Amino acid sequence: MTQEFQLDRLPALSRSTVDRDDLLRDDAARLAELWRTAELLVVDNRGRVELREGGAGLRLRAAVEHSPEPGDTAVLLGTQDGRSYWAVPAEQELEHEDWQDLRMTGALLDDTDAGLLTTAVGLLTWHRHSGFCARCGASTKPERAGWARRCTGCGREEYPRTDPAVICLVHDGADQVILARQPIWPPERYSVLAGFVETGESLEACVVREVAEEVGVKVREVRYLGSQPWPFPRSLMVGFAALADPGATLTPAEGEIEEANWVHRDQVRAAIAAGGEIPGLRLPPETSIARRMLEGWAAMRG
């Protein structure tokens, strides 16, 4: 029987502590009351936020210093301990070392800040790209504390979209894992395989199809591991493990996969022990679920 592994811990961007409280989004009086003591996160168009000195968490501001009440651009992130948290888009992009994006900081933030920033980036990106109705073309306006938009023409209501994608660690049931790299990645960066779910397709079927398309390998025993929001711009990464025949020939998809290899567990362990990279192998960053999957697999006794 093949030994199974799990994620070694919760993916960085899956962590959150605030209460989203759907009913609160329609309570204008309560929202106005909470705004008086609310904390506000400012996010620029590149998804960057200001960090506290030394990078120790998000720099939150008193909401009332921004405006006397929530405006159309403010989105409610949630509540915790009687306090509400909101986000607004920055008026302009700021070039400063204290402003960092989610990819760089996600794994360094605590559970509360990680959840706030992940939600803020996803919501504000959706608003920025959803100013017009997909049905009639009229302009749309925000509603429900930033969790919906309504068309000013036909009245159609729209909610934030999430595009599911699968990400799969394919191994041979022993000590080998398939790692591949895309042409656009930094030199020597490798990761597990991933792809978007197509219309009418199950997650498991997507795993089988994507692995076959990307490296020409047939997999079996597809098994769910966990998931992570990935708001770049609106994905949900759904993690799986799957088995392939030991030493199966890898045929990288032309133009999509530059190189794919079977990599031994000891090499992955060495990269992890060295902080994420050794000569010839750079692992995915700590922010990604791919890293959590690889560390969980590497920790399994083999």
UniProtKB/TrEMBL annotation:
Reaction equation(s) it catalyzes: a 5'-end NAD(+)-phospho-ribonucleoside in mRNA + H2O = a 5'-end phospho-adenosine-phospho-ribonucleoside in mRNA + beta-nicotinamide D-ribonucleotide + 2 H(+)
GO biological process: NAD+ catabolic process; NADP+ catabolic process
Pfam families per UniProt: NUDIX, NUDIX-like, Zn_ribbon_NUD
One cellular component term from this protein's GO annotations in UniProt: cytosol
Keywords for the protein's UniProt record, in alphabetical order: Hydrolase, Magnesium, Metal-binding, NAD
Single GO term (MF): NADH pyrophosphatase activity
Domain Nudix hydrolase: 160-285
InterPro entries for this protein: NAD-cap_RNA_hydrolase_NudC (IPR050241), NADH_PPase-like_N (IPR015375), NudC-like_C (IPR049734), NUDIX_hydrolase-like_dom_sf (IPR015797), NUDIX_hydrolase_CS (IPR020084), NUDIX_hydrolase_dom (IPR000086), Znr_NADH_PPase (IPR015376)
Cofactor: Mg(2+); Zn(2+)
Enzyme nomenclature, EC number: 3.6.1.22
Gene3D superfamilies: 3.90.79.20, Nucleoside Triphosphate Pyrophosphohydrolase
Family assignment from sequence similarity: Belongs to the Nudix hydrolase family. NudC subfamily.
Entry-linked NCBIfam families: PRK00241.1
Descriptive protein name: NAD(+) diphosphatase
